[in-house]
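Figure 2 data, in text form.
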Amino acid sequence: LLWLEWGPQRGHRWVWLPILLPALPLVVGQYALALHLELDGQFATLIWGHLLWVVPWMLFVLKPAWQRIDPRLLLIARTLGWSPMKIFCCVKCPQILRPVLVTLAVGFSVSIAQYMPTLWLGAGRFPTLTTEAVALSSGGSTGILAAQALWQLLLPLVVFTLMAGLSLWVGHRRQGLR
């Protein structure tokens, strides 16, 4: 939301590169940068590595809803002398709450699937469902591998179901505001 509100309006096409380009060269570039800066194996580097992949997908999902915010409400708020921060918090954010819930589910799903950034940038120190499933696929117990794979399927399903339920609840609570 902060990117859409106060981020660059032009010249931000580079944000879409993780969606458009093959993953391997970008992960190798991330890893080389982390090694050069001696930041590999740190939790903050791992978060940065995941955000590089998650943020473009979240922007992809959220941007159309952001562009559909009713400009008449913004004009009324500016006429009342509201600050840009108050307009953001009291007008824009409530209007976009339901799309934000869907966006969070998409971001979680993209993040849970990140194998190479997790393994390389985290220096193998941070086990996830994905890294454990890949490690088990090379000779571990097939039962445990099946359970890991099932969890990789079920966790995004649970998050999408939870966000859909929250979205319906928010829509029901705000029914009279339309």
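Caption note: The radius of gyration is 20 Å.
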